[in-house]
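quick one, two chains, predict together pls
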Amino acid sequence: MLRDVYLSGHPTIFPPGRLRMKQLWFVIMLIALPALMAQADAHSDTEFFETKIRPLLTEHCIACHGEKKQKGGLRLDSKAAWQKGGEEGPVIVPGKSSQSALLKMVRGTPGKPPQMPPDEVLPEAAVVDLAKWVDLGAPDPRQGVATTTKEIDWEAARKFWAYQPATATAADSTSADHGKAIDRYIAAGLLRAGLKPVGLADKRTLIRRATFDLTGLPPTEAEVQAFEADSAPEAFAKVIDRLLASPAYGEHQARGWLDLARYGESHADNENTAEKLTFAWRYRDWAIEAFNKDVSYDRFVKLQLAADLMEKPGDDPADRRALGLLGLGAVYARPNDLDRAKAEQWDDRVDAVTRAFLGLTVSCARCHDHKFDPIPTQDYYSLAGIIANTQNATVPISPADLLAAHDSAAAKSAAATQAAKGFLQGAADRIANQRADHLADYSIAVWRFNMQKQDQPALKPDAIAKAAGLSLAEFAALDKYLQKGNAGVQKLVVWQKLLRTKSADREPTAQVRELAQQFQTMVKDQLAKPFGVKGGRSADSQKDWFGKGGIFPITDELVKANATPEWKTELASLEKAAAAAAAAVPAIAQCNGVADIAKPADLKVYIRGNPAKKGEVAPRRFLRILSGNDRPAFKNGSGRLELAEAIADAKNPLTARVLVNRIWQQHFGRGIVATASNFGVLGSRPTHPELLDALAAGFVSDGWSIKRLHRRMMLSEAYQRASTSDQANMEIDPENQWLWRMSRRRLTVEEFRDATLMVAGNLKREMGGPSGDVDDVNNSRRTVYGRVSRHDLSQLLRLFDFPDPNISSDRRTDTTLPQQALFLMNSPFILQQAKVLAARVSAEKSSAEKVRAAYRQVFARMPSDAELKFAVGFLDAADGAKVGLTRMERFAQAILASNEFFFVD
Amino acid sequence: MKMPLSRRDMLKTMGTGLGTIGLASVLGEQGLLGATPVVGAGRVDPLAGKVAHFPAKAKYLIHLFMNGGPSQVDTFDHKPALVKYAGQRPPSVNLSTERKTFNLLPSPFAFKRYGQSGLEISDLFKNVGECADDLCVIRSMQTDIPNHAPGLLMMCSGSSLPIRPAFGSWILYGLGSENRDLPGFVVLCPGRPGVVGPQLWGNSFLPGVYQGCHVVNKDMKPGNVIAHLRNPAIGAAAQREQLDLLKGMNESHLAARAGDPALEARIASMEMAFRMQVEAPEVFDLSGETAATRELYGKGEFNDGCLLARRLVERGVRVVQLHYGSSENWDSHDNIDHHAKCARRVDQAIAGLLKDLKSRGLLDETLVLWGGEFGRTPVAEGNSTGRDHNHYGFSVFMAGGGVRGGMAYGATDEFGFTAVENKMHVHDLHATMLHLMGLDHEKLTYRYSGRDFRLTDVSGRVAREVIA
């Protein structure tokens, strides 16, 4: 048939009907044949893929390039995915194995061994199959998503408990019902778990617990006795109110917040060169005052993010200290990698802010969408953008009128100082001019000397210098200066050349004279300009010619030696006026805060966290999961205030919950959500979700008062339970998550040090101000006033589980180390406190009285008969040889090192 | 039949004998999931010996930290092309480092082949050369940033920021310790390191029990190596009596609170500390070593440090990091001849340590890592005869602990500037070190701030080629 057509030569001469049929067949065949053939090929290609390639990919590649992991941003588990490729672009060029990165990776290239798979080399047969597959056009029947990350299902995500609004019944939401609402929820949990709560703690135990919990200090014996004597039903409430009103409350409460704020007073990189955090302590003092004043928590949040942007007339400018949360953030010195250093700094702030306020780990979304929580990378950069538009700044915190007075007085002082300086400079300039008037001659003398020296290498300049009227030092300095050919003095370059040129008669040529004159004129011109003002005399030239170490050093002494008595009187009066003006400048206070940068702009997403690979724009705005898809972009400067308002919004489901949970953790040893800074999917679920909601809703409706929140929690029976154990309960709930008893806790390092100082009678109570060294045995202030270095943390703090001040920390770890015991046995600190304590009780007559006094002082209780006998036995025993501490001192040390002192029941 | 205790077993068990429960440390909710922890009474002892992820030869690690950055082309990476192209600047070396560099600078030190393996090592390390067949030189090291602080941090903690735990902390967390009278991670450094500070051995977010214990090995007095090791006022007998008083008070306190492991742990820690006062000075007292041993190591601060390192691992200390000086002592910007002085102070000591470990049968189970935070440029810095920092390519070596000896792994380009073959980033080195110690770097995780952290972050490849 084909032949028929072919042979037909001129088809048009065939009868139309028949020929048309034949042609049609032909056309059909032309079209269909390849298709039919392709169908057969496709079948075998798929088979090839299924039998050879799919198992190969599954076995060697998908673990790292599939749904679970996407190393290098690459997935190989669907056609769409590999077509999209990884960070470096597509790795398969269909039909061209030689150009496909995939083959280069598994095969290696000349001089470079195979890179993939990382831990093995693919068998040769597998590599051949892979190449064949790619050359076939990489047929791949696998459907599937191209994205390297799963899309967030927002609908489902919002159903997660933490994003649901906290609701509470009316009965729960007032603080008037004391702890009863709390106890209802706790009772329900205990009942469900089959636990029977232990009884209430005795009063001494309770007041010791409450006093440490609220103030970080032990109660005094008098306080214990007063409470024990008070039989009124509201006796404990009175204790709580007294403690909340104590300034020590703020000191203790602030320290917990400083953990979250990763408070540090120096940068980790290098204390000596990194940006100084001179005023760090102002933030600490602000936090102490804020807790003592019970600043509403929503305002507490907002001030730390945007105190500068929310200030209204009449507000205390000292509130700007709150900006330390951001302003004390890490600064990394990375001269070779500035972009990354900046990105790390943003991360530090985003991490601290989102974990402390929201209990969210937004930082996890820096390089890829959060693996567990609904936080896309874009959201991370939306928040990082707010930080990127904020810069560290030293911020004045004095009242406006004082600042104005300061500025005006400072201006006056500057003027007076300038007047005195100008007067002195005027006299100096007169002397300088006298010297400059002869500079050409001086220069020619120098030239002459250099010329003569060419003939007489041993020639000394003495005679020439003297003839010219120059001292030897001046002569040498001028020579050196002229030889150097100062780049700033163009003419001298030529001069320098001339110095090397021999003139026939060793006499200055016209050009030399001309240049010397020009040099003199130049110096005179400069001297005619005022010194020390912008656009005036060149400071460098002044230094080179007339400064200390210059050619003609015109010192103050020289000026004064040449001055008249009248001039001296005048100068003295000007200097006196300058000193008076300087003294009249009122002191102003400053803090390490932040300020918006001038021209705010959004960031672009850094793909995989890489500053060199930028993706879509991330408008500055709040997290989508908390504010919806159509949330507005922030328009006000950096957006800090809008962020602050979004976080402190009563409708934000996290802020209040996270805070009440932190306070709960403080009182019960463990949060209702055990992971206090992670309310996300990987965090713990609340043990008592309704209770958490009731507390959160009550907290907001109660005006965000933290003090009243403490009160509610502490008035519950749950808080007042004993810490005694119970065999049956231990088997069901050894961790005490259902709160069948109070969990015993040990003292933090601050509590331990402060309590030791206090019972020894050494604790100094003045508040605020710059930090001291807690490793210094003579420092008796509370530990919260101790220096916190991010670079080199105090030995004591490090030893007793103080958290790393480089990272936000939501709880202290408790480690028991023999090195801690060594501290209690041998450190100068403990020995000193033991001596002071021993001295305090030394006035008592008998050993028994001394023991009683020490017990009352340290434990606020009397010793039992057995304890008394045991202790007296120790005190009354005789030492064989002389011992460096008295028995009483050794006893005092033991009591300070005891478990009873170190633990709170 | 009861096997006689080896000297090492005796050293490890000396003074211990406390039950797990007595040592229990009370940790919060963070959980301690290094490898497989030993659990007692619902509490976890964070230092209990743990079962590694897989069997491994190396039990201990000694890191001989050549801080400052020794030059690879003057030590373990011979580059004859530097002589041929001396004074030139071929285009292939146009890489920017910390400072401005000029032309290729040949090494002033001669190289020789050592041992049966014929490893090429420069004259700076003649003594180490005698151990060539035990060395696995990695010539293709890379790190991220050519500045000291980030480089030191990267080598010590796998991050150029000072916010991650040291590898010693990770290993201690993963494997626990074998000796309870001594810290499990000891850092011998003659002072406070200048640019970074104690963050180099910090535990960061890992519990404090895993922090490196800094022993100032400068003018060391065995009685003062650990803070507060000695009571300045009273002697052992009086202190024993005082501790018995304390114990009595604590026991009467405990009687009403029976079974609280936190209280028991603290009581036990007092007893442990009391013994540590005796035990620790003994470890740091070198006077009992034979003259032959002292001679093997040579005289000097670093030499004594190497000997101490052996004494520490011999007693079951998990990780020892020995710094060569407390500043960046290998730094040789102005004149590479400065390397001769450094090498003179470490060469014999390192060789002595390797030989001593080997003769005591300890080398097999002790992984020794030698190296700096980066290398140096094959080109001169400015017009000097010194070399700038180089993060593109440098050499370290490992020995013992299941590493293949007598081999070089990876390679730099013909001038030794950048790694080109079998590149080994610090993350890869860490992954390989952990592997040699029986830990899977992807499984050794700690949950903090909502995510599982690793020493190797999201990187790390085990170089199986170097494993014997």
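Strands of chain A lie at 390-396, 590-596, 603-606, 614-618, 745-746, 903-904.
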